[in-house]
UniProtKB/TrEMBL annotation:
Subcellular location: Cell membrane
Gene that this polypeptide is encoded by: AUGUSTUS-3.0.2_13642
Keywords tagged on the record: Cell membrane, Disulfide bond, G-protein coupled receptor, Glycoprotein, Membrane, Receptor, Signal, Transducer, Transmembrane, Transmembrane helix
Protein known as: Metabotropic glutamate receptor-like Protein
GO cellular-component term (any): plasma membrane
Any GO MF annotation of the entry: G protein-coupled receptor activity
Record organism: Tribolium castaneum (Red flour beetle)
All residue ranges annotated as the Receptor ligand binding region domain in the record: 61-330
Length: 352
């Protein structure tokens, strides 16, 4: 069975799979929502918005949330006599698709749902309402977090992001129920400027992905650069649904300037496409890349084209290894693996 579309069903004895809505529901006393980009976005395909599986940014982060839930539920001290459950959706790396899917988090506040009716052995249906979502973990992309936050705030549902770094989300007058465990983009923009100063560069180009993350990140970088005496050669933008030829044109315009250093505030999928464009132009090794945290230490942007990224400097927020996570994922990798992928699948999973 193929991987498209794919969602995981965890703890099958306590979980339900809604194939129509493509979500994971794990029963518990307190329900935590989760948003993860488990698939890449398919540009221009509203009928099939979800593409290839995203292992690092999607599946591994999903596993991290489920690991935390398992650890808390197994502890006799943290939440005694209380079981955590989950309602997890796939954003498919798309803000509009994620907004549609996130309505599942507030559905219990609005109306009854057909999935809340249970029929057993021909008996009349019994209404068993889902428990409301208490808080939401996610999202990854800032633009997705912004859209989802605008829905959750109406129902006063707290949201904690593990990766959204946009400075816009720091505005507590608009996002009073949003918090995050990563620093905002202006911190890494300032770090990029400090790195460039140490390297003695005075002339750089920039590339931003369209949207709040890329545009605000580069705007912060340009502001700090002006104070540091660093000149900007050209500023390029990767538009939504950009085609292969659009990336080729960006590389062509970058080559028209003498600046070899290029600062990127670009998501990992578009970073990969930009590197592919340098290969097509036979200009690998020409540019000196400074990448933001969306590239960070991820393998996906450079897999099978590592030579195109040789010498790149990428930014990554400080992080600590959590004891037990590696063995947790390893066990599940050995007990079940998604076909054609290194993505681990936990016990009793269902693929559709």
């Amino acid at each position: 069975m193929g991987l498209l579309p794919l969602l995981l069903l965890l703890a099958a004895a306590h979980a339900d799979l809604d194939a129509e809505r493509k979500l994971i529901r794990i029963r518990g006393d307190i329900i935590l929502g989760g948003i993860f980009p488990m698939h890449e976005q398919v540009p221009g395909r509203s009928d099939m918005p979800c593409g290839a599986v995203k292992e690092e940014k999607g599946m591994q982060r999903l596993e991290a949330m489920l690991y935390a839930i398992d650890e808390i539920n197994a502890s006799p001290d943290l939440l005694p006599n209380v079981t955590l459950g989950a309602l997890v959706i796939d954003s498919c790396s798309s803000d509009t698709y994620a907004l549609e899917q996130s309505m599942e988090f507030v559905r219990s506040y609005m109306n009854q749902d057909m999935s809340e009716y249970k029929c057993e052995s021909g008996k009349p249906p019994v209404y068993v309402p889902h428990k409301p979502v208490t808080a939401v973990i996610g999202a990854s992309f800032s633009v997705v977090s912004i859209m989802v936050a605008n829905i959750l705030r109406l129902f006063k549902i707290p949201q904690v992001s593990y990766a959204s770094t946009s400075t816009e989300l720091s505005d507590k007058s608009r996002f009073e129920y949003f918090s995050r465990v990563v620093p905002p983009d202006n911190f890494q923009a300032q770090t990029m400027v400090e790195i460039i100063k140490e390297l003695g560069w005075k002339y750089v180009s920039t590339v931003a992905v369209e949207g709040d993350y890329g545009e605000r990140g580069i705007a912060s970088f340009i502001s700090y650069s002006a104070d540091a005496g660093i000149c900007i050669a050209v500023t390029e933008k990767i538009l939504r649904n950009s085609k292969t030829e659009d990336f080729d044109r960006i590389i062509e315009r970058l080559l028209q300037k003498t600046a070899r250093a290029v600062v990127l505030f670009v998501d990992e999928d578009n970073t990969r496409k930009l590197l592919q464009a340098t290969i097509r132009a036979n200009k690998t090794g020409h540019f000196l890349w400074i990448g933001s945290d969306s590239w960070g230490a991820k393998v996906h942007p450079v897999r099978d084209q590592e030579f195109a990224a040789e010498g790149a400097i990428t930014i990554l927020p400080h992080r600590n290894a959590i004891q037990g996570t590696k063995s947790y994922i390893y066990i599940r990798t050995q007990t079940g693996r998604s076909p054609g992928s290194n993505t681990s699948i936990t016990r009793n999973t269902t693929i559709y």
